Amino acid sequence: MRLLLALLALATARPLARAESDWCYAIQAKVSSDTCLGPDKWGGNCQKDRQSPINIVTTKAQLDPNLGRFSFSGYDKKKKWTVENNGHTVKMWLGDGVTVAGGGLASQYRAKELHLHWSKVLDAGSEHSLDGEHFAMEMHIVHMKDTGTSRDEKEDQNKIAVLAFLVEAGSKNEGFRPFVEALSDIPRPHMNTTLKESISLLDLLPNEEKLRCYFRYLGSLTTPSCDEIVVWTVFREPIQLHRDQIFAFSEKLYYDKEQKLGMTNNVRPLRSRGKRQVFKSQAPGRLLPLPLPTLLVPMLTCLMAGFL
């Protein structure tokens, strides 16, 4: 009898153990009736010292001449992508045929999915910050390295390449319209749908010329198990969405199947940069419209004319 009671107790304890391992964001932990672990209690590698996101101090970023242009392949491919509410965010699955190389990356990386982080507050929805400033949202395009798995620890640090785009309130973004409209079809976790119109990744991004300005550092996934295997690229040029487009994410999506808790503030708090160096590309500021010699010639001509 004692053995039977012990086995019953063990069996009833297992679901609770699974519930305790469930991770969530701080807003969920505050209201959840289940055992839900907020960011300060995340397990796995989440308490290590090379975590993401971080605050990027732009003036302290070190110029790296190897951080040149990216080579985007398949980013112009228009498709009716599948989007999913996974209970933590909304994901757009990218399938095969979308890759990125260049930009100082170690090899070619294959895009797997993109997702976003956001808030109801227009300056609190991004995970990364620039000089202490947060943005309305942040979009991550997640890529896996094409090469095979390596046991080399240094190579393990960049198995995944994430391109991070900050989002600010501005004019209406027609490229995002099919994506935003699809949110109404996936309010609850584990629901998915297909976009009603074809779009490309380039439709969602700033002009490619503006993607020359970015920051680079080694970090982690921003969700459990927070593996420290990510080479991060954070672009300086923000994406612009209309306020209504931004708020649609908080208004149309829910964390729970009962649709009681709106999906918002799905943002991991900033982590310490520690001793890590943040690098910046060769074009960290506004690009000159013309080569410098072309600008100097007429200027010098004017100066010489003043002495004659």
Automatic annotation (TrEMBL):
SUPFAM superfamilies per UniProt: Carbonic anhydrase
Domain of life of the source: Eukaryota
Pfam families (alphabetical): Carb_anhydrase
Catalysed reaction equations from the record: hydrogencarbonate + H(+) = CO2 + H2O
Chief localization: membrane
Family: Belongs to the alpha-carbonic anhydrase family.
Protein name listed in UniProt: Carbonic anhydrase
Organism: Hipposideros armiger (Great Himalayan leaf-nosed bat)
Gene: CA4
